[in-house]
Amino acid sequence: MRILVCISNVPDTTSKITFTNDNTVFNTNGVQYIINPYDEIALSKAVELAEGGKGTVTVINVGDASTEPTIRKALAIGADDAVRINAQPRDAWFVANQIAKYAKEQGFDLILTGRESIDFNGAQVAALLGELLNLPSVSIAKKLDIQGTEATIDREIEGGKEVLTVSLPVVVGTAEGVAEPKIPNMRGIMGARSKPLQVVEPIEVAELSSISKFESPAPRGAVKLVDEVDQLVQLLHNEAKVI
Fold first, then answer.
1. Contact between 85 and 60 (Cβ < 8 Å)
2. How many domains, the chain?
3. This protein's superkingdom (predicted)?
4. Omega before 169 cis (within 30°)?
5. Which domain holds residue 200?
6. Does residue 59 lie in a domain region?
């Protein structure tokens, strides 16, 4: 089984987020980058599925050369090889088209993404890949099992879960529960240095959207501690005006 895992290079959640050029450009100075946590879950599941010679795992990332440390970490976790599309990931449509072009030429049995990236939280790439590749796409997967050429997927829906059976090939957007993220060991880290990393030039994709401005959340206000229920109700009614 050939598995493709799509990974994003995202700011660590502990990084301080600021913007430049009148809040139109994300300031990368001093920002540490990591594999998108949901993508790391997808990668861990792919490695599990491929263990024991049952398959191969390729990771793909759309980004410039600065993303290669993140890609090498994915190789250290257990991917066999990697592909970097040499372009800035300007939006989900652009990213999905780049990945779809490569995937079409390779014929993967299973394509995994995270449910969303933690920087823009768009949750679009898995669905767009399914459409571009004419494949079934299932997102917010909480459990994934493969038997032969069939996938059984537990999918999160409002108020419960949905259990689906889908024939391979399929695109799956994974969430918590599919697998536990793996920590690369020293052998994996050393081996990642020599694993293949192919750089592919991007295709032209029409620009359908652009970011006009970023805004930081409003600072948190002062906290009031109350001991009485009546006092809480009064504050919610008179000050917060939510009841």
1. yes
2. 1
3. Bacteria
4. yes
5. 2-213
6. yes
The Cβ of residue 151 has, within 10 Å, a number of other Cβ atoms equal to 22
Residue corresponding to tokens 């240095």: 193
A 10 A CB-CB count for 202 gives 15
Answer with the residue of higher pLDDT: 203 or 16.
Answer: 203
DSSP string, 150-208: EEEEEEEETTEEEEEEEESSEEEEE-TTS-PPPPP-HHHHHHHTTS-EEEEPPPP----
CA dihedral 183, 185, 187, 190 (to 10 degrees): 70
Residues in Cβ contact with 183 at an 8 Å cutoff, skipping those fewer than 6 apart: 77
Residue carrying the six token digits 């993404």: 113
214 pLDDT more than 90: no
The structure tokens listed for 235 are 């504050």
**Which amino acid type is present at position 35?**
I
Q: How far is Cα 92 from Cα 208, in angstroms, rounded to an integer?
A: 10
Assigned domain for 230 exists: no
Asked if residue 224 belongs to a domain, the reply is no
pTM for the complete prediction?
0.85
- Distance (Å, rounded) from C-alpha 49 to C-alpha 35? 20
- Residue 108, domain member (yes or no): yes
A 10 A CB-CB count for 225 gives: 4
Q: Per-residue confidence at 24, pLDDT binned at 50, 70, 90?
A: confident
Q: Is the pLDDT score of 55 beyond 90?
A: yes
Given a cut of 90, whether residue 199 has pLDDT beyond it is: yes
Angle value at C-alpha 35, between 31 and 40, nearest 5 degrees: 155
Helix axes 68-77, 37-50, angle to 10 degrees: 40
Average the pLDDT over 127-148 and give the result.
Answer: 95
- Supply the CATH number for residue 101's domain: 3.40.50.620
